[in-house]
Structures are given as structure tokens and as C-alpha cells.
Write a structure and sequence with these properties.
heterodimer; A: about 100 residues; alpha+beta; elongated; B: about 400 residues; alpha/beta; Rossmann fold; 7-stranded mixed β-sheet; about 20% strand
Chain lengths: ~100, ~400
């Protein structure tokens, strides 16, 4: 699930849980929240990038050939990419 | 020493805040606190105070703006009452959890409904458990003093918490009182510029108000609770410093003739001064009566309370809010909780008085006192003077 980066004790926490290291949300993996995951059928994909644009987690990336995939470390399985994909190239399956 | 001048207390509070040189003020007018931000707006508009005055569209925005400004390292102030406080409610617990000093005057007013603009403590009781240091002024002088103290307390490196200065709506906000206003030089000496623990700035990376899920929420809550409890030490130090500099003494619970008293009354806010007159009358009649005035409600001064009631037979807790369906009214429930483990605790009675601005008179306190000294009440709490 999540990569544990928390202080062990309450005494070790920074006041107000302030974080002084940049990019902390990148190290906080949230893929474990997911029930379903999106899979792409690249024979139907027209490489329009709608899934990439709509992903609220910004966890969909483009590969060298121009197809798309979700980074499952962050994908919460919301299904928005599936809903928006008008050529119906994306399916949600149980994770 | 500064001279005593007659002024409406809300205006004096604004003058006191201005002396603290706030960088940002964001507030929305609501009766009865309105004259505080209104007068501050005048002070800024007239060029007497170099301050960003944000005329926001709601209290929710007011406290949000203050939170952001405090995160950026500014000294900030806001004020509200009743429904305004409820409108900003969503942000109220966020401020202490981010450990940001924001100073707020609360002109205490009854919450709806029925709709009422007059004084009681029901607005404050909605936020008492959300992590703000909370003081109650019993007169104008205390309001002025607490406004200045609040900045020093909240911004202290060992505290870093927001502070609420409660002043009873109308009974204090709209009353003209002769007060000693500290001058700029004195306040500058007492209150240095804020040195924030961290401030939002492109050169210094910091994330504030971060996510805290089950793996850290417990620890975050514990750390916040400890911070609030530990703030008492700093509050006492700063009050000592204040007394040394300005000659006016502040304690979490101020005692009036309570040392040798058999029957003690405990009040909060402006009722204290009325109750003092009642205590004097009762003393003349031969009763060993005393008064405790609760100045610091959060962190709750449990040790001071235990000490203050030692030896008394009856304790009458006067509340100015109903804790609907609760075991007692809010202050009394807390007092009972603190005294439960004490071997010789007094008999505790609880009267709720002055709801929604119902007049609170000297003779009311005398009546309550005589009733409590006589017999144990049938009910855990009573709304004094309710018809029917």
C-alpha cells in the first residue's frame, strides 16, 4: 500500500505536520485505495489523449508509441478515463 | 504611564489591535463585534496603520484569508460574532491544526434560533474544543490588554496557536468605559515583530495543511493537544511580564474574596463584575461568599480550579449557554469533570443565566446564591428565571 514515510511518534512530528521536503505527495502512494483498474485495448485506441487530459490524478502517461497507461501507484480507479474514452478503448476490471 | 480615557470598548479593542501593528486584517461585519473591524478599517484608511485590509465577502473567506496570510508569516487579526463564527466554522479547526497564530476577537452573541443578536456564550461554545487558546474578558480594560497579550502568546515559538479573545456582545462591545490605553512605544517594547516558525515563500520549500490519514492522524492530534496544554506555561509567563510592565495582574482564574469562602460562585466574562457586587452584598449579610472569574477557558486551568475551590462547601457554576441534552451546561460539565477525583469536592450547582441577552442583575446572583447555599438542587442544571 502506502510507502511509510511518517514520523514514528507524535513528538517527532513537525508543528502542524509541515513538510520541508518538496514532492512529498509523490512518495505518498495512494494506489491502494483502488477497487478497479483501467486497462487499454490498443487496437481500439486512437491516441486522442482524452484519458490523459481527464485523469484527476494526472497519473496517465503516454508511451513511446503514443499509447496511454495508468501509473497504478497513484491510480485510484475512479473510472473517469473509462467514462470519457469515446472509442471505448478503456475497460475497468477488478484489481 | 498612559492616561485613562473613556471609549467604547469595541473601538478600544480596535485601537489596541492597531498598536500591535498587524500586517493583514480580513473581517466581515456582524453585530455586535462590527465596530472592531470597522474602526480598524478607518485606522488603515486614514493611513495610521500600514496593513493589508481585506474586505472579504464572508466570514468563511475572512478566516481563510487570515490563515493564508499567517502561513505567509504575517501578523493577522479578524473578529466576528455568532452566525459569522458559524459561517467560518469549517476553517476554525484548521488554523490550530496548522499551528498558525491568528488573533480573533469574538463579540459573544447568542446563536440562532430563535434569531437573536444579544449576548450569551453559545457562539463560543461551538468552537471551544477546536484548539484555539481562549480567554474571556470581564471588562474593557481586560479586552484591550488581552488583545495585545494574544499576539504575543499566539506567536510565541513554544505556542504557535490561534487565540480567541472573548468579549460579551453589547455588555462589553458597546459600553463606554474608562480604560488605560498603552502607547505605541510600550506595545512595541512588549510585542516584537512576529518571527514565524516557517513561512510560505518560493525560496523556502514548505508544505502546510497536508493530508494526515490513519497512519499519522492520531499523532497529529496528540501533538496539537499537547501544544495547547503546554501553552499555559507561556500564557502565565506573558501575563507575569504584562503585570510587571503595565501593573495589571492576570491569572487563569481570578479570585474575589474566595480564599476563605464557604460558598463560591464561578462566572466567565462580563458577569464577573456584576457578581462581585453581589458578593459584597452577601458578605455584608454575613455570608462567607466568594467569586471565581474564569479568564482562561482553553487550555482549561484544571489545577488552578482544584486549588481555588479547596475548602469551600458549595460551588455555584454560572453558565451562559445551554449544552442541549447534555449532563450540565458547558462550563459546569467541565468543572465537574475536573473536580470528580478530588476527595473533598464541594456540592456543585449549575445555573444558566443571561441567555440571548436576558438581563443579569446583582439580585439574580444573590437569589441564586441563597438558593444554592440552602439545599441540593433537584436537577443537574437550571435555566434561571425561565417563565413557567
Amino acid at each position: 500500500m502506502t510507502e511509510k514515510k511518517w514520523p514514528e511518534t507524535w513528538q517527532d512530528t513537525n508543528p502542524g505536520l509541515m513538510i520541508f521536503k518538496p514532492g512529498s505527495s509523490r512518495s505518498y502512494l495512494t494506489g491502494g485505495w483502488r477497487a478497479q483498474k483501467p486497462i487499454w485495448d490498443n487496437t481500439k485506441c486512437i491516441k486522442c489523449g482524452v484519458c490523459y487530459l481527464f485523469c484527476p490524478e494526472a497519473c496517465i502517461t503516454e508511451d513511446a508509441e503514443g499509447f496511454f497507461m495508468a501509473d497504478l501507484n497513484y491510480c485510484k480507479g475512479c473510472g473517469i478515463c473509462y467514462h470519457e474514452c469515446w472509442p471505448r478503448a478503456i475497460k475497468m476490471i477488478e484489481d | 504611564m498612559s492616561e485613562r480615557i473613556g471609549m467604547e470598548i469595541a473601538l478600544a479593542a480596535a485601537e489596541a489591535v492597531a498598536l500591535c501593528r498587524p500586517d493583514v486584517i480580513a473581517a466581515y461585519p456582524i453585530t455586535p463585534n462590527t465596530h472592531i473591524p470597522e474602526h480598524l478599517a478607518e485606522i488603515v484608511a486614514d493611513g495610521h496603520l500600514d496593513c493589508e485590509y481585506i474586505a472579504v465577502e464572508s466570514e468563511h473567506s475572512a478566516l481563510s484569508a487570515c490563515t493564508g496570510a499567517s502561513a505567509a508569516g504575517a501578523r493577522v487579526f479578524t473578529a466576528t460574532s455568532s452566525q459569522g463564527l458559524l459561517y467560518m466554522y469549517e476553517i476554525v479547526p484548521v488554523v490550530p491544526s496548522m499551528r498558525l497564530p491568528v488573533i480573533m476577537c469574538l463579540g459573544n452573541r447568542a446563536i440562532s434560533g430563535p434569531i437573536n443578536i444579544w449576548n450569551d456564550h453559545s457562539d463560543y461554545m461551538c468552537v471551544r474544543d477546536l484548539g484555539w487558546i481562549s480567554m474571556f474578558a470581564s471588562n474593557g480594560q481586560e479586552t484591550v490588554d488581552m488583545c495585545i497579550q494574544a499576539f504575543k502568546i499566539g506567536e510565541h515559538a513554544d505556542v504557535m496557536l490561534p487565540v480567541l479573545v472573548n468579549l460579551d456582545g453589547f455588555q462589553l462591545t458597546h459600553v463606554v468605559e474608562a480604560m488605560i490605553m498603552p502607547n505605541q512605544e510600550e506595545v512595541d517594547k512588549f510585542l516584537p515583530p512576529r518571527k514565524p516558525f516557517a513561512a510560505l515563500h518560493p525560496d523556502n520549500i514548505v508544505s502546510m495543511g497536508t493530508l494526515g490519514l490513519p497512519d499519522i492522524y492520531n499523532e497529529a492530534k496528540k501533538a496539537n493537544d499537547e501544544a495547547l496544554i503546554n501553552s499555559k506555561k507561556v500564557i502565565l509567563e506573558i501575563w507575569k511580564e504584562w503585570e510587571k510592565m503595565f501593573g495589571r495582574k492576570y491569572e487563569p482564574i481570578m479570585s474575589y474574596k474566595a480564599n476563605d469562602a464557604d460558598v463560591i460562585m464561578l462566572t466567565m466574562g462580563s458577569m464577573g463584575e456584576t457578581a462581585q457586587v453581589a458578593i459584597d452584598e452577601l458578605r455584608k449579610e454575613g455570608f462567607k461568599a466568594g467569586l471565581l472569574d474564569l479568564k482562561l477557558y482553553r487550555p482549561f486551568p484544571a489545577d488552578e480550579l482544584k486549588k481555588a475551590v479547596k475548602g469551600c462547601k458549595n460551588l455555584i457554576v454560572i453558565d451562559r449557554a445551554v449544552m442541549s441534552g447534555g449532563a450540565a451546561a458547558p462550563v459546569c460539565a467541565e468543572v465537574k469533570s475536573v473536580l470528580y477525583d478530588e476527595p473533598d469536592r464541594p456540592v456543585i450547582t449549575n445555573d444558566i443565566i443571561g441567555l440571548g441577552g436576558r438581563d443579569v442583575r446583582v439580585e439574580d446572583f444573590i437569589k441564586i446564591f441563597k438558593k444554592a447555599a440552602k439545599a441540593k438542587p433537584e436537577r443537574a442544571y437550571e435555566i434561571y428565571g425561565v417563565r413557567g
